[in-house]
Write a structure and sequence with these properties.
Largest sheet: 8 strands, antiparallel
Distance between the termini: 26 Å
Shape: elongated
Number of domains: 2
Order of helices and strands: HEEEEEEEHHEEEEEHEH
Number of strands: 13
Oligomer: single chain
Number of helices: 5
Helix content: 25-40%
Strand order of the largest sheet: 4-3-2-1-7-6-5-13
Strand content: 25-35%
Radius of gyration: 28 Å
Length: 296
């Protein structure tokens, strides 16, 4: 399970990195000097803006320097987070608390000079879809592909009812001259042994199994339609509305003032945390390379 969680975290970070490279809006969960909030990197804003939970906005200009980072291990089981030290072009030092795989991306991106402002696209790109919406769409796609496989490669036939279980609304049916038998859902009140009902004999790897053509399609429609609808709603409606709301709040709040400069040797107090230097920022810190890696 830890390997699965770590793999999903890397995948989600790669999606955000790729979205950043192609100009989509990405709203990173992070902390700025201990304040929880979101770092908004959005084409609708003039530059990166941090907005905390109280609605206070702080502009975080690019073109500074990522000085380094420390990784902290908290909780049981251990959970890593990275504190990124970033010096702005005005010389102010701030600390960004980020997910491990986002720290390298943002450290590289913030350290590069902002490019020329391009003309706004006629059809702006949608913000990066949240992971839960992608998972829901993936589940719906899996159900749809499995259904298509059964429908195309399965054997559609009329099977003879051998036995009816009225307590379970289940029928045992036989086809291919009685060679193959399987249990399927049926309306036990109206079906009698000897009746013929349409079924789909499933292909490999479910040889010898069959499904009915009445109840099963309804179940499949629910199993595939509900997560598909949730995923589409999250990706196309809910997430864009939430992102637009954060952008409006950032605009209303106006540019904030960054905290005063922190001495290089000063460190934040870490309660019940194991902290060590994080060497990941020391290896070829260039956003172009990270973005190229995310595309492949």
């Amino acid at each position: 399970m830890p390997l699965v969680v770590a793999g999903l975290a890397r995948w989600a970070a790669a999606r955000r990195r790729h979205a950043l490279a192609v100009g989509r809006a990405v709203h990173f969960r992070c902390r700025l000097d201990g304040r929880r909030g979101r770092l908004l990197i959005d084409p609708r804003l003039d530059g990166p803006v941090f907005i905390d939970r109280s609605g206070n906005a702080v502009a975080l200009p690019r073109g500074g320097e990522a000085l380094g980072a420390t990784v902290s291990t908290v909780g049981q089981p251990p959970f890593e987070k990275v504190s990124l030290r970033y010096r702005t072009p005005q010389g102010r030092l701030v600390r960004l608390g980020l997910a491990t795989h986002d720290a390298r991306t943002l450290g590289a991106w913030l350290s590069e000079e902002a490019g020329p402002v391009s003309a706004p696209a006629r059809w702006p790109l949608l913000p990066t879809a949240p992971s839960w919406a992608v998972f829901a769409l993936a589940a719906a796609l899996f159900v749809g592909l499995a259904t298509a496989d059964f429908a195309v490669f399965g054997k559609h036939t009329d099977a003879e009812v051998v036995r009816v279980d009225r307590a379970e609304d289940d029928c045992t049916v036989a086809w291919d001259g009685g060679v193959e038998q399987a249990g399927v859902d049926c309306d036990a009140a109206d079906i009698r042994p000897g009746d013929r009902v349409p079924v789909v004999a499933l292909p490999w790897p479910f040889l010898g199994e069959a499904v009915d053509t009445v109840t099963t399609p309804l179940v499949v429609a629910v199993l595939g339609g509900v997560p598909g609808l949730l995923g589409l709603t999250g990706a196309l409606v809910v997430n864009p509305l939430l992102c637009a709301r954060r952008v409006r709040r950032a605009r209303r709040a106006g540019p904030g003032v960054l905290p005063t400069t922190v001495a290089d040797g000063e460190t934040e107090e870490q309660d019940e945390e194991d902290t060590e230097e994080w060497s990941a920022l020391g290896d070829d810190l260039r956003y172009a390379g990270l973005a190229a890696a995310a595309r492949h």
